[in-house]
Each structure stands twice: as C-alpha cells, then as structure tokens.
C-alpha cells in the first residue's frame, strides 16, 4: 500500500468506528449510506498529510480528518436536495434513497458526529465553524445572489469549496501543534487547492461522461448554476488554465510553511497537481 493510500485507509478505518456508534438504527443506516458510498477523501487526506508535513503523526490527525469528511458529506446531502440530483458517487443520493426528511436528518447527524470529533480542541472547533459559515454564505449566494462575472465566481468558489479545504489543512497543522503562521500557510495552500478543485469540477460538468464521473453532468446549465464556463467568457481550456494558476499559487503558499516532513509535503504538492488533472 503506497503512502497516501495508507493514510486514506487510516481514515476509512476510523470512519467505520465512528459510524458504528450512531443511533438509532435508521439514522445509522442513512449516515452510512452517505459516508461510505465512496468518494476521493481528498479533504481528510489533506488533514493527515498537513499534520505530518508540519511535524506531527498521522494518528494525531485522524479524528479531525474523519470529522472534516463528515462535514463535507453533510454538505453534499444538501447539495443533492437543492439540485434534485438522484445520483452521488455512482449510487442513489440520500434523498433519492430515503426521502427528503430522512436525508436532512442524516445531514444533521453527520454534522453532530463531526463536531464531537472536533470538540476536544477549541482551535479545531473555531476553524471548522469559520468554514461552515463561509460554506453557508456560499450556498446562499449561489441560490439568491448568483455571481455574473469572474470576480464573483472566484469568491463563490472560495466560500463554497475553498473554505472547507482550508479548514482541512488547518486542522492537520493544529493537530501537529504548529505555530499560527504555519497553520495560516497550510490554510492558504489548501484554500487555493479547493478553488482549483471547484474550477475543475465545473469543467468536468461540461466535458466529462456521466458514467465515468459517477454523477450526472450538465447539471450546472440545467439548474442555471454559476459555473466558471457560464459566468465568464472562458472556454473549458481557459478555465483549466485558471485552475492550474490556482494550483501554482497553492504551491507558493506551501513553500512558506514550516514542513519538516518532506515526504508528506511532496504528497501535498502532488495533490495540488492531481486536483487540476483528475477526470472524476
């Protein structure tokens, strides 16, 4: 098992343990359907790798990593309800499988489990709370004050995707007991990675095959969502170039961080490249 895959396996193992304690049975089934349906686990991997890069141990960050994945999964449940998307990660979305009300309850359950994992450290609670405020503002902006230009789109991408990526990396640095400047540098790195990730997502929604992507494509146009190719004059290739620019900015921020573990740092560098070249 290679280095990043071993970190993902650590997260998966702990995720199973956390979900096994969920009650009642009906809620447990719903949250397991959401959280164990696959996914790239990019955010929790960022948490673990950031902790190691900052000089900590993977085990120090695994609870925070699972927590940030649960927050992400909860947000996807809501996204699918808003979008009326009946597929997620190649399986039925939560609302399609269980109905709207149980899906909303499952989202709440995921958030509750996540914050129990963050609760031992006030700094972790603050980082995630800040991200959730940004995420909520991003969702609201997308629904009622949709951006119509590049500047507005980039701010939306920062809030909707970049903020939780930032929290993921900050949580890792916090778990390593890094100094505030290092926490900030890791956060900036991950926020830029998140924006690049969102731009790539928008491009894939326009260009990818739905079966290969694991979710419906063309949704942005169908729902009138403000994707990069809808609210700017960029075509898919130009949008991809912008994603690469954000990836480069992420690497510049990482260079400013104190990173005694060079192996973990190299994988964070690789991740910045992966998010702009992935095909699903």
UniProtKB/TrEMBL annotation:
<dbReference type="InterPro" id="IPR033749">
    <property type="entry name" value="Polyprenyl_synt_CS"/>
</dbReference>
<dbReference type="GO" id="GO:0016740">
    <property type="term" value="F:transferase activity"/>
</dbReference>
<protein>
    <submittedName>
        <fullName>Polyprenyl synthetase family protein</fullName>
        <ecNumber>2.5.1.-</ecNumber>
    </submittedName>
</protein>
<dbReference type="GO" id="GO:0046872">
    <property type="term" value="F:metal ion binding"/>
</dbReference>
<dbReference type="InterPro" id="IPR000092">
    <property type="entry name" value="Polyprenyl_synt"/>
</dbReference>
<comment type="similarity">
    <text>Belongs to the FPP/GGPP synthase family.</text>
</comment>
<dbReference type="GO" id="GO:0008299">
    <property type="term" value="P:isoprenoid biosynthetic process"/>
</dbReference>
<dbReference type="InterPro" id="IPR008949">
    <property type="entry name" value="Isoprenoid_synthase_dom_sf"/>
</dbReference>
<dbReference type="Pfam" id="PF00348">
    <property type="entry name" value="polyprenyl_synt"/>
</dbReference>
<keyword id="KW-0460">Magnesium</keyword>
<keyword id="KW-0479">Metal-binding</keyword>
<keyword id="KW-0414">Isoprene biosynthesis</keyword>
<keyword id="KW-0808">Transferase</keyword>
């Amino acid at each position: 098992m290679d280095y990043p895959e071993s970190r993902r396996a650590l997260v998966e193992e702990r995720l199973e343990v956390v979900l096994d304690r969920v009650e009642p049975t009906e809620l447990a089934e719903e949250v397991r359907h959401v959280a164990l349906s696959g996914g790239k686990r990019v955010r929790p991997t960022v948490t673990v790798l950031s902790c190691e890069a900052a000089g900590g141990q993977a085990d120090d960050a695994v609870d925070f990593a699972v927590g940030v994945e649960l927050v992400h999964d909860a947000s996807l449940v809501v996204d699918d309800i808003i979008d009326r998307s009946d597929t997620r990660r190649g399986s039925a979305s939560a609302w399609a499988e269980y109905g709207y009300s149980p899906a909303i309850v499952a989202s709440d359950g995921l958030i509750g489990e996540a914050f129990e994992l963050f609760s031992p450290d006030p700094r972790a609670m603050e980082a995630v709370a800040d991200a959730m405020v940004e995420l909520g503002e991003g969702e609201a902006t997308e629904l009622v004050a949709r951006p119509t230009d590049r500047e507005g789109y980039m701010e939306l991408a920062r809030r909707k995707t970049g903020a939780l990526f930032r929290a993921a990396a900050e949580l890792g640095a916090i778990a390593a007991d890094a100094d505030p400047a290092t926490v900030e540098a890791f956060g900036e790195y991950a926020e830029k990675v998140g924006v690049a990730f969102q731009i790539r997502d928008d491009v894939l929604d326009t260009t990818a095959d739905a079966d290969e992507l694991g979710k419906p494509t063309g949704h942005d146009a169908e729902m009138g969502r403000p994707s990069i190719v809808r609210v700017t004059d960029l075509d898919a290739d130009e949008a991809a170039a912008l994603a690469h620019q954000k990836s480069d900015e992420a690497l510049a921020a990482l260079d400013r961080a104190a990173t005694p573990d060079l192996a973990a740092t190299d994988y964070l560098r690789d991740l910045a490249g992966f998010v702009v070249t992935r095909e699903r």
